[in-house]
Write a structure and sequence with these properties.
The structure is a single chain. The protein is of the alpha+beta class. 39% of the residues lie in helices and 22% in strands. Residues 220-229 have a biased composition (Basic and acidic residues). Residues 208-229 are annotated as: Disordered.
Length: 229
C-alpha cells in the first residue's frame, strides 16, 4: 500500500504535521445527535460495498482527520458522500478510523519532510521491471499480433456499421437515421423530417405530398405524425 522505499520506525520526536497540507471537502455538525462528520465528496462514485472502498480514499480521510485534529476538531465519524446521478440523492459510505493508518501517515509524512523536502531531495520513483534483450523479440511479435487483431476488428466494426446504416436509410428514406457506438450500439432517428427526400418518396408511391403538410407550418414543413401514419 505504501511505497517500498518508505522505512518504518520513525522516532516519536519526528512525528509532527509541519509538512502536512490538506483541505477537507466539508466538516459537518449534527446538532441533534451531537456528532461531527468529516466528509469527502465523490461524484460519481459507487463502490459495490463499503468494505471495498479503495485504500487511497481511506488514507485521504485519515489525512484530513490529522489536519482537523491539529486545529482542535476531532471528528466522530468520517466517510465518502457519493451523488447518485440516477436518483439525485447523496449516499453516505462510512469509513472507520484506523489507528495504524494514521500512525503510518504521520511516520511517512515526517520522513518525507525531514529526509527529502527540507534537504531538497526528490524521493525515488517506483521501480519498473525492464525487459531483457531476449524478451524483446516475443514482445514485438505479440505487439504485432495484437495490432493486426485490432485493425481487423476495427474494419469489421466499420463494415457492420455501414451495413446497418444502409438498412436504416433504405427502410426510412425520409428520416435522417444515425448510428452511435459507445459501450453499446444504438439506432436512433431524428424527429425532424428530411423534407426533400420525403416529398420525393411520396411522389414515387403515388401520394399527394400536400395532404401531409403540417397545419402549423403550412407548406414550410411536413407533419411527422401524418408521415408515420
Amino acid at each position: 500500500m505504501w511505497p517500498h522505499w518508505m522505512p518504518s520506525g520513525i522516532t516519536e520526536d519526528r512525528r509532527n504535521t509541519h509538512g502536512f497540507s490538506a483541505l477537507p471537502d466539508e466538516i459537518s455538525v449534527d446538532y441533534i445527535g451531537g456528532k461531527i462528520f468529516l466528509l469527502d465528496y465523490k461524484c460519481p462514485y459507487q463502490p459495490p460495498k463499503p468494505e471495498d472502498i479503495p485504500f487511497r480514499y481511506r488514507a485521504q480521510l485519515h489525512h484530513y482527520r490529522i489536519i482537523a485534529k491539529r486545529i482542535g476538531i476531532v471528528p466522530d465519524e468520517m466517510g465518502l458522500v457519493e451523488l447518485d446521478l440516477k436518483e439525485w440523492v447523496p449516499r453516505f459510505f462510512p469509513i472507520e478510523y484506523d489507528e495504524k493508518i494514521e500512525k503510518d501517515i504521520l511516520e511517512y509524512g515526517s520522513m518525507l519532510w525531514y529526509d527529502y523536502i527540507l534537504k531538497g531531495v526528490i524521493p525515488p520513483g517506483p521501480e519498473k521491471k525492464r525487459l531483457d534483450l531476449q524478451e524483446l523479440e516475443p514482445a514485438f511479435e505479440r505487439l504485432s499480433a495484437l495490432k493486426a487483431i485490432a485493425d481487423s476488428a476495427d474494419r469489421a466494426f466499420k463494415d457492420t456499421k455501414e451495413d446497418i446504416a444502409a438498412v436504416v436509410h433504405t427502410r426510412s428514406p425520409f428520416f435522417q437515421g444515425s448510428l452511435q457506438a459507445g459501450k453499446f450500439l444504438s439506432i436512433s432517428a431524428k424527429s425532424e423530417i428530411d423534407t426533400e427526400n420525403a416529398i420525393h418518396y411520396l411522389c414515387s408511391q403515388g401520394y399527394d405530398p400536400s395532404s401531409f403538410y403540417s397545419p402549423k407550418k403550412g407548406k414550410s414543413g411536413l407533419d411527422s405524425e401524418k408521415m408515420a401514419g
